[in-house]
Amino acid sequence: MATFLAFRSAAKQICSPKIRPHTFLNTPHTRRLHASAVHHSKYQKPRNDNIPFSDVHLVDLENSGQLVKMSLTDLIAKIDPKESFVELQSTVPLPVVKIINRREAAERRKISKEKHKQNVKKNVKKELQFTWGMAMGDLEHKLDRAKAELKKGARVDLVFAPKSGQKPPPIAEMKERMELIAERVADVGVEWKERELRRGMGALFIKSLGMKNEDEEENSE
């Protein structure tokens, strides 16, 4: 890794109309915070009976996102718990809630998890170091490792350097060796960045064939 580094160095949740503060905000009946509200997980918003307010303001999606004040108990009683749930969206300046469809919420979570999984896979990067005069057996072993990582979807940096105490080969020979290695991994990977060759050291930047280009990812979103 030190060799490679030396080489490189050289080379509001809701869109709704503004709401005017109301005098009933600070009344005991409206704002009864439970201890669970303070310590509630930041990864999940309070739902149904876990919402620490007696009165809430429902987002009316059929009426341009207008807020409708109502009793939380009455609202929960009106929904089918098997189909949907009431979820707290914000508390300032008003306790605002939405009715969430369980099936749609599950689908969104599934999509989010898959996108996170793909992002993690995209950000995995491996580095393998080669010497210009590497023995064929060692070369094949490194190539097998590179291919295995590319098949997993990772990016692989192939770094070339002269063996300790030896001079690098002529530039033409270095270019030929890098071209040969690039061809050997072409069935599972493609170069996504321009090759680097400087001061006797070189690098190939390979990504899995299944990975999109950054501009393709932006267009697909």
TrEMBL record:
InterPro entries: T_IF-3_C_sf, Translation_initiation_fac_3
Annotated keywords: Initiation factor, Protein biosynthesis
Any single biological process term in GO: mitochondrial translational initiation
GO molecular function, one term: translation initiation factor activity
Family under the similarity heading: Belongs to the IF-3 family.
Species annotation: Gymnopus androsaceus JB14
SUPFAM superfamilies from the UniProt entry: Translation initiation factor IF3, C-terminal domain (SSF55200)
Protein name: Translation initiation factor 3 N-terminal domain-containing protein
Superkingdom in the source lineage: Eukaryota
GO CC annotations on file: mitochondrion
